[in-house]
Design a protein that fits this description.
It is a single chain. It is globular and about 35 Å long. The chain is an all-beta fold. Strand 8 and strand 9 form a beta hairpin. The model has no long low-confidence stretch (mean pLDDT about 90). The two termini are about 25 Å apart. The chain has a single domain, classed as Virus Head Decoration Protein, Chain: A (Beta Barrel), CATH 2.40.300. The chain contains no helices and 10 strands.
Length: about 130
């Protein structure tokens, strides 16, 4: 079961229609309010279901639910892929969080996040 706990939120204007349950818990870009393309531009996790131009609730730090783009094991570092889904970070990715528990592909799981200053995984031997 996915859980949430203490988290820091903000609001920004949605740059596209995000009013479906499929977008909730995906990463959102801070600069344009659209689904994020990578961990560097991701500003947080979409916690609401806004229409285009509405204000959305964005979780930027804390324990939050996320939408997995692949199977993820517990404690693995997380990054964002083009579709706004979260996947396991590898060399050259920006790490925005860690999985609190194992999650199957396409499911919603819990994680610990900090989008303030994502860590860049530059080592070719990077593995957790």
């Amino acid at each position: 079961m996915a859980t949430e706990n203490v988290r820091f939120l903000t609001t920004i204007q949605a740059g596209e229609d995000l009013n479906t349950s499929g977008h909730q818990y995906q990463a959102i870009a801070l600069n344009d309010g659209k689904v994020a393309n990578n961990g560097a531009e991701a500003g947080g996790i979409l916690l609401s279901k806004p229409k285009s131009e509405d204000f959305l609730t964005l979780g930027r730090e804390g324990e939050m639910k996320f939408r997995a783009g692949e199977a993820i094991q517990i404690a693995k570092p997380l990054t964002v892929v083009t579709s706004g889904y979260f996947t396991v970070a590898g060399s050259g990715d920006y790490i925005v969080g860690r999985a609190k528990s194992a999650v199957t592909s396409g499911s919603i799981g819990p994680g610990f996040f900090d989008f303030t200053a994502p860590v860049y995984a530059f080592s070719s031997s990077f593995a957790w």
